[in-house]
Amino acid sequence: MRELLEGSYAVAEIIKRCKPGVISAYPITPQTHIVEGLAQIVANGELNAQCVNVESEHSAASVVLGASATGIRTFTATSSQGLFYMAEVVFNIAGLRLPVVMTVAARAISAPINIWNDHQDVVSLRDAGWIQLHAEDVQEAVDLHLIAYRIGEDKSIMLPVMVVMDGFILTHGVETVDMPEQAQVDKFLPSYKPLYKLDVENPMTLGPLVDPDYYMETRYAIEETHKDVLKLIPKVLAEFAKVFGRTSNGLIEEYKIKDAERVIVAMGSVCGTIKEVVDESRAKGKKVGLLRVISYRPFPAQQIYEALKNVPKVGVIDRALSLGSVAPLASEVKATFFGKAKKPKTVSSFVVGLGGRDITKDSIKEIFRLLTGKEKAGEFIDLKPELLKESFDPVDRGQGHPDRLKGVEG
Amino acid sequence: MKTLFNSGHTACAGCGQSMAARLVIDAAGPNTIVVNNTGCLEVFSTKYPETAWGVPWIHSLFENAAAVASGVESALKYLGKKDTVNVIAQAGDGGTADIGLQALSGMLERGHDVLYVCYDNEAYMNTGVQRSGLTPFDTNTTTSPIGTQSMGNIRPKKPMPEIANAHGIPYVATASVAFPQDIQRKVKKALKLKGPKYMQIHVPCPLGWRHETNLTMQVAKFAVETGLYPLIEYEFGVLSGKRQITPKPVEEYLKIQGRFKHLLNKPEELKKIQESADNNIKKYGLRIETQAATGQQGGG
Fold first, then answer.
1. N or C: which end of chain A has fewer CB within 10 A?
2. Interchain CB contact of B61 with A (< 8 Å)
3. ipTM for the complex?
4. B55-95 pLDDT tens trace
5. Cα–Cα distance between B88 and A232 in angstroms, integer?
6. What is the pLDDT, as a whole number, of residue A402?
């Protein structure tokens, strides 16, 4: 059924249809509406679940870890500092091979504190072992949650999945969403039947001490499983298309890149803006395109290479940094071309939209314009020159000063 | 004897914690899921591919046993199995009173039907005897060493049983490995009550306390009999049980442990420790009343 829904409530509605038995989260902007929505759904008796209102994100992740280990489907959601606070549990969930699903409302990292959208939180946890799927719009966010449970709980996979939605832009944006019917969801997503669990009938020790004689193989197994995920996602999406009547791309989306001379690589909601610019530029005869990365983990290096190998100029947009080195997505896209005979002439790197700075069509046009020139390395777009002096001042560095307050006199 | 905590694990000789852990799980029985924080107990009982545990058992991290147990309990509720399965979360003193305190407080406040057991050996033993929030006053540890400017740990033990009790939970108890039947009685009592329960069991660590490995029971017993480790029970916030004693002087307890050896020729320090024992005796009414003692109560 097509409904006009805020992104967060759309996620709450799809999670309701996925029927998790335990939901646990801690409030953090801009994730809160998702769990508020679910709390109301449970309060209304529309979903039989235990909502555990914990005292921290660390405990939110720990609660879903414990519940998942007891053999049931679980859900949590967080953002930014919350994701960092639960980081060690995030790694732990993957190591224990528990198929937890978590929504992350992607948000900048402090300091300075900033509640708006970029990708520093999720990109920083790329090595945790989780599958990480990035949504472009609310519809895709809804669909990716179904896909997340289906893939994570697959007996050959058994890994947790993070569905990334750009904070505010998607969590608070209102869109018309084709909300799947319960019967469709039940058809696509069978109830969770774990291979192992905490069970008094069949006692097992989960999370034992593993010494150097055994540890490496457990990590190798996760690495190999990520390769299996790359193969499984297209199969699951083919099935998704059969049940729901719409296609979803899964690993990457190629947007008008077959004959393109310049292509931007990006993740998340900015891709909507890029598609508009591509369409407008194409109308003017410019051969430009977009490659959207949906599955950031596992990273579909081969698919990205095949899609871009004939494109002369590639520009990668990062909405996060690896301070002191190449921006994360650019680094990985560049690596796909290493040692290959056929590859782009230049692969430029751009840093855009940190801490919620608007990425406008002009920002994207500027990137396409810069792609006509020499290769750019970590070029920041939309910096404000008038603020730079302050940010570099060894004393000031963007700190607040009481004498700047424009208070009301008297 | 059949046990749910099997021999063959790698605990040190004389380890108080391993004995207490066996008493706890055997009292709880096979219909129990155990969630264990990181620490000695986890390390010495689950070295892959072996395990000492005859019940379903999970270890996640150092500080989150209470939260993981909250998740296990919530899942059991969802499955309609909570009434037939016990959940025990357990940790050492650092995992409980320091790094795990927030998760524990959350679990107690939210009312999960979980028994939390703190095995209190009064320092971070797994990492090499560093002081914790439950290390006693004047204890010589590797991070509260004695020196010309130091008599050891500068603060008394964090009052964890009182902190747990302040959450308004059904049951709080302290116990000692020196009194095995008392431990098992308290575990059984706790598991009959719905809601969060907190137990703190005093478990000597010969390595960290520097006493002979055959003295574990005696050391633990003297801690109780000097009044330094009161054995008490709170039910629904009310002091409902206590083990009464004919108090021994604290030196009896201190002199058999290397961690307190530096105090033996320091009468002013011994006085402070005796005072804290006396305060416990007075506060909880630990002294066995005899005709001769009547009228002297509280005098130390």
1. C
2. yes
3. 0.96
4. 999 999 999 999 999 999 999 999 999 999 999 999 999 99
5. 38
6. 77
Is some CB atom of chain B closer than 8 A to the CB atom of A218? no
Which domains, and CATH codes, for chain B? Answer: 16-284 (3.40.50.970)
Task: Write down the pLDDT at residue B296.
Answer: 45
Helix, strand or coil, per DSSP, at residue A310: coil
Residues in chain B within 8 Å Cβ distance of A74 = 71, 75
Say what the pLDDT of residue A408 is: 66
Q: Percent of chain B beyond pLDDT 90? A: 95
At A22, list the tokens: 């335990």
* pLDDT of A394 strictly over 80: no
**What gap in Å lies between CA B183 and CA B27, rounded to an integer?**
8
Q: Which of B92, B67, B100, B128 is nearest to B16 (CA)?
A: B92
Does A227 have pLDDT greater than 80? Answer: yes
Measured between beta carbons, the chain A residues lying within 8 angstroms of B42 are: 209
Q: In whole numbers, what is the pLDDT of chain B averaged over residues?
A: 96
> Which domains, ranges and CATH numbers included, belong to chain A?
2-244 (3.40.50.970), 252-391 (3.40.50.920)
> B-contacting residues of A 74-133, CB under 8 Å?
74, 88-89, 92, 96
| CA A188 to mean position of chain CA atoms | 22
Interface touch A59/B103, C-beta < 8 Å: yes
* Token pair recorded at residue A147: 């896909």
Of B48, B75, B102, the CB nearest to A67: B75
Q: Look-up: residue for tokens 């891709």?
A: A271
B282 near A CB under 8 A: no
Q: What is the DSSP letter of A192?
A: P
* Residue of higher predicted confidence among A259 and A250: A259
Mean pLDDT, residues A315-324: 98
Q: Which two tokens stand for residue A315?
A: 């520009």
Cα–Cα nearest to A293, from A272, A271, A314, A277: A271
pTM of the model as a whole: 0.96
Report CB contact under 8 Å: A209, B75. no
Instruction: Report chain A residues whose CB lies below 8 A from the CB of B49.
Output: 208, 214
Give which of A98, A110, A67, A249 is closest to A161, Cα–Cα.
Answer: A98
Contact A65 B79 (CB under 8 A): no
Percent residues over pLDDT 70 in chain B: 96
Closest to A67 (Cβ–Cβ): which among B30, B54, B71? Answer: B71
Minimal CA–CA distance to A344: which of A263, A238, A253? A263
Q: What is the pLDDT of residues A78-134, one digit of tens each?
A: 999 999 999 999 999 999 999 999 999 999 999 999 999 999 999 999 999 999 999
Listed by number, the residues of chain A in 187-206 with a beta carbon closer than 8 Å to a beta carbon of chain B are 197-200, 202-206
Q: Which residue of B41, B76, B78, B167 to mutate against A (max A Cβ within 10 Å)?
A: B78
Q: Which of B47, B57, B68 to mutate to test the interface with A (most CBs of A within 10 A)?
A: B68
B76 neighbourhood in chain A, CB within 8 Å: 70
| Residue contact B67–A54, C-beta within 8 A | yes
> Long-range CB contacts (< 8 A, 24+ apart) of A335-339?
A335/A301, A336/A301, A336/A302, A336/A304, A336/A305, A336/A308, A337/A305, A337/A308, A337/A309
